[in-house]
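ok so i was messing around last nite and threw this chain in just to see what happens. nothing serious, just curious
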Amino acid sequence: MKGKMLIVSAPSGSGKSTIVQWLMQEHPELKLYFSISCTSRAPRGTERNGVEYFFLTPEEFKDKIAKNEFLEYEEVYENRFYGTLKQQVERQREAGQNVVFDVDVKGGVNIKKFYGDEALSLFIQPPSVEELRKRLIGRATDTPEAIEQRLAKAEYELTFAPQFDHVIVNDDLEIAKQEALKTIKSFLDD
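result:
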């Protein structure tokens, strides 16, 4: 049986990746497997090519765009691309894996349009932009300028929430995790 798709999107710092990692580690019965996206940014921390992302140069990324190899992609900032390869997703679905997309909001909307009811789209929303600022500063992975860029982008991204199947407000991480689990189980059991 072909796998289903789970799209999880959120402004940076909303807890999206934390929730997705928890679901994958603590709930193997869901048979969730990451769709490994491509990016043209440099690896952060301990990230490895082919694990968290496929790291491409901007030129390699543009070549794949020209060849229509992406299910979705976006130039988030100048020459900083993120995208999902069609071939990667289909290979995983054919293997019966439920494919998880941890993507930006535009990518999430595009994947949902492409797959329709075969995909469940979740939007993880921070309780406020001020709380988001605290989380981004606390992560200590970005410069102050990058944090301000992310916050400006987050305000725009929050306007996409109504285009998702389900919105989870992450003001309490444990409650948000349980809500995500319940929603995903219901979708996969259909």
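not much to say yet. The helical segments are 16-26, 58-66, 86-94, 105-115, 129-139, 144-157, 173-189.
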